[in-house]
TrEMBL record:
Belongs to the enoyl-CoA hydratase/isomerase family. PANTHER family: ENOYL-COA HYDRATASE_ISOMERASE FAMILY PROTEIN (AFU_ORTHOLOGUE AFUA_1G01890) (PTHR43684:SF4), PTHR43684. CDD domains: crotonase-like. SUPFAM superfamilies: ClpP/crotonase (SSF52096). This is Enoyl-CoA hydratase. GO terms for molecular function: catalytic activity. It holds the Pfam family ECH_1. InterPro entries: ClpP/crotonase-like_dom_sf, ECH/Chromodomain_protein, Enoyl-CoA_hydra/iso. Gene3D superfamilies: 2-enoyl-CoA Hydratase, Chain A, domain 1.
């Protein structure tokens, strides 16, 4: 068994990051967060990566904070001072410009569930157990859970899940819109990879970056501000190499060949 806290495997433009503490069911710790965020940053900076998949080793995604670490906090009354060594903010996954897919292969609670909410797409095995958990641990909603959950499933449902901290399943999560699709366990990772490869091969990285920015900014802007921002982006896109490639590949009925992120896909004009 590898001692690496977060494994990385690359397949056809997809980086698969696996939380790797199976002996603790991938429970969240400060070192795990540091390594996970560093791995994400590496994927952002790697032009060959066009889509990122997050999953857990074994049959659990992440049950939340490691209870051994929580017990230390009950004695000190303070967070782990090693948190100061993490360069990225808690919400760093929300800033990643590439598509992120949470492959929920088992239970996810607390910090673990919030990490899935920071992803763009959530695919899950049926009947895995989920929980916000914070209210049952004497904690407020952490890691932006109170910001994310209402925007994903609506204020009423989010309130109930946060204040109750009850356990619910991925089957219920799919019904209320928190999970996008359920996939049976035997085919789970193969189906996740098929979906991720499709994004990596057929979607413009620059377009995805713009869309993610628009979604994030749109929730905090007025309608007219959103329209004006979209028009500004559209004017730049119409003269871009990615727009030219997107249209011509469709007309010519061939796979697109979009520029890697950072090479000006929506800013660069076609030759």
């Amino acid at each position: 068994m590898s001692d690496e806290l977060v494994l990385r495997d690359d397949v056809d433009g997809v980086a698969i990051l696996t939380l790797n503490r199976p002996h603790r069911r991938n429970a969240w710790t400060v070192p795990l967060q540091r390594r996970y965020y560093d791995r994400l940053q590496q994927c952002v900076e790697d032009a060959s990566v066009r889509c990122i998949v997050i999953t857990g080793a074994g049959s659990t995604f992440c049950p939340g904070a490691d209870t051994e670490e929580l017990q230390v906090y009950t004695q000190t009354g303070e967070f782990n001072p090693e948190m100061a060594d993490i360069e990225q903010p808690d919400w760093y996954p929300m800033t990643v410009p590439k598509p992120m897919i949470a492959a929920i292969n088992g239970a996810a609670a607390g910090f673990g569930l919030v990490q899935t909410m920071m992803c763009d797409v959530r695919l899950a095995v049926p009947d895995a157990r989920l929980s916000t958990a914070f209210a049952r641990r004497g904690l407020p909603a952490l890691h932006a859970a109170s910001y994310l959950l209402p925007r994903l499933i609506g204020a009423s449902r989010a309130t109930e899940l946060l204040v109750s901290g009850r356990t619910f399943t991925t089957t219920e999560a799919e019904r209320i819109g928190l999970v996008h699709r359920l996939i049976a366990a035997p085919e789970f990772m193969a189906e996740v990879l098929t979906y991720a490869r499709d994004l990596a091969l057929n979607c413009s990285p620059a377009s995805v970056q713009h869309i993610k920015q628009q979604l994030r900014q749109g929730s905090e802007s007025s309608f007219l501000e959103v329209v004006a921002d979209a028009e500004r982006r559209e004017h730049a896109a119409l003269a871009s190499v990615d727009f030219h490639e997107g249209v011509m590949s469709f007309v010519e009925r061939r796979p697109p060949s979009f520029a890697p992120l950072g090479e000006g896909g929506l800013a660069r004009q076609p030759d």
